[in-house]
Design a protein that fits this description.
The chain is mainly α and 87 residues long. 53% of the residues lie in helices and 11% in strands. The chain has a single domain, classed as Winged helix-like DNA-binding domain superfamily/Winged helix DNA-binding domain (Arc Repressor Mutant, subunit A). The protein has a two-stranded antiparallel sheet.
Length: 87
């Protein structure tokens, strides 16, 4: 599903990097990190919703700011990415 958008592969790597850094990244932080083929914010939010609905990403409440949702790759997505990079 990530590859269905021009910025999807970059988004996959950004979310993986944020996970490794244990970053406090919300939708806005993640959107701002995209450098190439950046979509409109509404389209990006919609795509994040789709990724969440299909369990490719998870959302959790930020411990630093209660109104912020942290985005993370799901365990299945992380495992798939690790397998693909190990080849």
């Amino acid at each position: 599903m990530f590859l269905s958008k021009p910025y999807g592969l970059e988004l996959l790597f950004i979310l993986s990097m944020f996970d490794q850094q244990n970053a406090d990244n919300g939708i806005d932080d993640t959107f701002d990190a995209i450098q190439y083929h950046r979509p409109r914010r509404a389209a990006f939010s919609s795509f994040i919703g789709q990724l969440h609905a299909y369990h490719h990403i998870t959302k959790s409440v930020s411990p630093l700011k209660g109104s912020k949702q942290i985005l993370r790759l799901s365990e299945d997505t992380l495992n798939g990415l690790a397998k693909a990079l190990a080849r």
